[in-house]
């Protein structure tokens, strides 16, 4: 196929590439594929400075908007060869149309890279990331990314801006819903699973896409939970808490990294040489390319570290940022910087190669249109198999927070159920934020799911209240239907736009008059089940006290109603566990399970100890918590040895028995505490888990193996390694209810 019209032919380029290949000795040490490197060098040698800068420029199309402003001339930019990548454009036909401009109308015909926020599904929408994380099911999380990639690539996309691997202990921060919660260990495993899911084994495979680990770094630690706000932390905290998921994503082969909006210790991430050159490239030997977040180079002006656009661009390119998203700062300033000798063209070459390399890896130079296939699009998008996977994932993402007197599951013989609340007959909110090309009108509301499942049960609906405002006029009707019902399902929470980007809150209680509505209904004395749909931990102490049962459903995606109906009526036994602590009071934030002991550990009887005088230290629900319709008994913990050296290991075994009448799944969790270190250590840290299925009455033995790697941390001198001494190992079904034993790491 001829893709370079009227100008240089692809044959010419590859003839020279082959020549170069023949003349160079490929360096196996570099980690790059020598064949691709030769082609990249060959293309680079043909490019003008402006063409190279084009490859470092990413603009949004006007098809979708994921940031404040657009560049209406993006099509002219494509035709001029001044843009190398486009985002917010999808669909086999539209991507083909834009690709034709790049391939047929520019001098070199270098194909465009199409990116998009395929965060939790493309057309079939899966649960929000925080919800998926609640499943603790790594295989399923990998699977949903794989399906998302199948659908997205069938619509012409090559590159997703996911996974977001920002650890966050900040429920005020709306973007906590886009991540995997508070824990670096769980977050690292999930980040790697997502990368494997999106990218598969081979980027050339038409069903896989390039992934992006974002936002580098420490974005989840925004001061006071306000989005885009400053972060300031020790190198130790950065490396122990915020960086591990990025490292794991890189080890899993992620090909791009996105900068974060925040400044870190005084240096905005997008100008941060320490992050991008020292850590990412030098220490971690990252081989992919770095893209900014939306207009982040321009924002260096507002951060107050750049005097003008040229200066901002200089800081970014020097820091190792390859591609600018949307602000056009590279487009407008890099050439001038080279001409004025403020930066070397070598920097531009390096960045251009990083971008070209991925285009070769995706096979775009062989066939730039290979992803834009109308037939494949029709066949892939929202196919039954994908919806089945979505439903399976949705069921696994729900957490049972409370279930007094086995209120749940409801009997299928029940006659009348009142379904009340602003989230009940609601399709839009079910797919959450960052729902890509998801069509909310195809999502199944809770009410619809219930009716579909059990046509013989009388489900009566009243909205009762909105999520916002103080209008109580709907209470009357809600109470009327509740009075005549055998059970009440109360679907309450936050609208999808109340979390996500630029959706920070100072109040994390249930918004509007929903709690009041719940309390009025509870007074009727009927079995009342709250189904929460929300994007952050909420302070719901009163609900916890008053409701008979509570399900945390987050936003479950396209198949929400079907999944919840299965859970409410016992066809699926909830197995989710919290990936994030639910504070009892906002004033406890940041609160997470892996806190330090302090020099004055809490003692309720001693005044001068670390505690509050107006509230307990304990959260409402601890990390790792979640109930089941059945009960699990943990037998005695046993260790294969109580001593180990750095080169051996200890097996930790525990017997878990399903003592209830339902089959169910339990996430058995292993935590470790280093009792004495050269620096203070957390009271416990998650170091292993296993999700097991047990039939009623069945027993399984779970065995974890502790190795020296599980005991490492950043020591006083910031070297990474373990220290000899005593450790405590904890095992249980959440981070609080655990058994413990001690062992010693010998010198
Ligand atoms: C801004 C967000 O911070 C980022 O996560 C997203 O990928 C980009 N916009 C592109 O939509």
Helix content: 25-40%
Q: Can you say what the CATH homologous superfamily of the domain at 384-584 is?
A: Glycoside hydrolase family 3 C-terminal domain
Shape: globular
CATH architecture descriptor name of the domain at 384-584: 3-Layer(aba) Sandwich
| CATH topology value of the domain at 384-584 | Rossmann fold
Q: Give the DSSP E fraction (strand runs of 2 or more residues).
A: 15-25%
Structural class by helix and strand composition: alpha/beta
Described by strand count, sense and barrel closure, the largest sheet is: 6 strands, mixed
Question: Topology of this structure?
Answer:
Elements: H1 10-23, H2 34-46, H3 49-55, E1 57-60, H4 74-79, E2 85-87, H5 92-105, E3 113-116, H6 129-133, H7 138-154, E4 159-160, H8 184-199, E5 212-216, H9 235-242, H10 244-251, E6 256-259, E7 263-264, E8 267-268, H11 273-283, E9 289-291, H12 299-303, H13 309-319, E10 324-325, H14 329-339, H15 345-361, H16 374-380, H17 384-396, E11 399-403, E12 416-420, H18 446-453, E13 458-462, H19 475-483, E14 487-493, H20 514-522, E15 528-533, H21 541-546, E16 549-552, H22 560-568, E17 632-634, E18 638-639, E19 643-644, E20 650-658, E21 664-674, E22 685-694, E23 699-706, E24 713-714, E25 720-721, E26 725-732, E27 738-745
Parallel strand pairs: 1-2, 1-10, 2-3, 3-4, 5-6, 6-9, 12-13, 12-14, 14-15, 15-16, 19-27
Antiparallel strand pairs: 7-8, 11-16, 17-20, 18-20, 20-23, 21-22, 21-26, 24-25, 26-27
The structure holds 1-deoxynojirimycin.
1-deoxynojirimycin (NOJ) is lined by residues 66-67, 117, 161, 214, 293-294, 501.
């Amino acid at each position: 196929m001829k893709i370079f019209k009227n100008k240089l032919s692809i044959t010419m380029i590859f003839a020279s590439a082959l020549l170069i290949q023949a003349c160079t000795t490929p360096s196996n040490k570099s980690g790059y594929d020598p064949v691709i490197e030769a082609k990249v060098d060959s293309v680079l040698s043909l490019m003008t400075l402006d063409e190279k800068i084009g490859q470092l420029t990413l603009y949004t199309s006007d098809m979708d908007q994921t940031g404040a402003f657009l560049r209406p001339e993006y099509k002219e930019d494509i035709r001029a060869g001044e843009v190398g990548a486009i985002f917010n454009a999808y669909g086999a036909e539209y991507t083909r149309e834009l690709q034709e401009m790049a391939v047929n109308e520019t001098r070199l015909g270098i194909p465009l890279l199409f990116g998009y926020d395929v965060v939790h599904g493309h057309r079939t929408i899966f649960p929000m990331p925080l919800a998926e994380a609640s499943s603790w099911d790594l295989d399923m999380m990998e699977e949903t990314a794989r399906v998302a990639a199948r659908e997205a690539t069938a619509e012409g996309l090559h590159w997703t801006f996911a996974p977001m691997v920002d650890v966050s202990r900040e429920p005020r921060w709306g973007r906590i819903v886009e991540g995997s919660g508070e824990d670096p260990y769980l977050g690292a495993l999930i980040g790697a699973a997502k990368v494997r899911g999106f990218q598969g084994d081979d980027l050339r495979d038409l069903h896989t896409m390039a992934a992006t680990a974002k936002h580098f770094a420490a974005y989840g630690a925004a001061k006071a939970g306000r989005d885009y706000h400053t972060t300031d932390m020790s190198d130790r905290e950065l490396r122990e808490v915020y960086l591990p998921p990025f490292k794991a994503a890189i080890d899993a082969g992620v090909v791009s990294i996105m900068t974060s909006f925040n400044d870190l210790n005084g240096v905005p991430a997008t100008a941060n040489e320490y992050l991008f050159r020292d850590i990412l490239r030098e220490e971690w030997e990252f081989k992919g390319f770095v893209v900014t977040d939306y207009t982040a180079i321009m924002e260096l002006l507002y951060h107050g570290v750049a005097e003008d656009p040229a200066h901002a661009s200089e800081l970014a390119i020097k820091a190792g940022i390859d591609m600018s998203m949307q602000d056009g700062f590279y487009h407008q300033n890099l050439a001038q910087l080279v001409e004025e000798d403020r930066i070397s063209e070598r920097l531009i070459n390096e960045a251009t190669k990083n971008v070209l390399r991925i285009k070769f890896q995706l096979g775009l130079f062989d066939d730039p249109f290979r992803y834009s296939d109308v037939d494949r699009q029709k066949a892939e998008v929202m196919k039954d198999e994908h919806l089945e996977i979505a439903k399976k994932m949705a069921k696994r993402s729900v957490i049972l927070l409370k279930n007094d007197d086995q209120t749940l599951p409801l009997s299928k013989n029940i006659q009348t159920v009142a379904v009340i609340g602003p989230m009940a007959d609601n399709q839009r909110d079910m797919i959450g934020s960052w729902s890509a090309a998801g069509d909310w009108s195809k999502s199944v509301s809770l009410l619809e799911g219930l009716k579909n499942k059990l046509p013989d049960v009388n489900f009566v609906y009243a909205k009762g209240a909105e999520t916002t405002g103080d209008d109580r006029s709907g209470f009357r009707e809600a109470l009327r239907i509740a009075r005549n019902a055998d059970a009440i399902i109360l679907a309450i929470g936050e609208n999808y736009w109340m979390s996500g980007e630029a959706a920070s809150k100072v109040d994390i209680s249930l918004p509007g008059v929903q709690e009041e509505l719940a309390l009025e209904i509870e007074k009727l004395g009927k079995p009342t089940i709250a189904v929460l749909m929300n994007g952050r931990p909420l302070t719901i102490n009163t609900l916890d006290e008053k409701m008979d049962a509570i399900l945390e459903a987050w936003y479950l995606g396209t198949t929400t109603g079907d999944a919840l109906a299965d859970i409410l009526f016992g066809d699926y036994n909830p197995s989710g566990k919290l990936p994030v602590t639910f504070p009892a009071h906002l004033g406890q934030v940041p609160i997470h399970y892996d806190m330090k002991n302090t020099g004055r550990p809490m003692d309720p009887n001693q005044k001068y100890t670390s505690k509050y005088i107006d509230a307990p230290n304990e959260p409402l629900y601890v990390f790792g918590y979640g109930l089941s319709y059945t009960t699990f008994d943990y037998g005695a913990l046993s260790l294969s040895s109580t001593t180990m050296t750095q080169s051996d290991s200890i097996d930790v075994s525990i017997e878990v028995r399903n003592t209830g009448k339902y089959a169910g799944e339990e996430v058995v969790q292993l935590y470790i505490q280093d009792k004495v270190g050269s620096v203070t250590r957390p009271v416990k840290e998650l170091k292993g888990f296993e999700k097991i299925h047990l039939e009623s009455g069945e027993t399984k033995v779970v065995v974890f193996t502790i190795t020296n790697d599980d005991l490492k941390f950043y020591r006083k001198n910031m070297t990474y390694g373990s220290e000899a001494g005593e450790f405590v190992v904890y095992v249980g079904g959440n981070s609080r209810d655990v058994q413990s034993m001690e062992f010693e790491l010998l010198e």
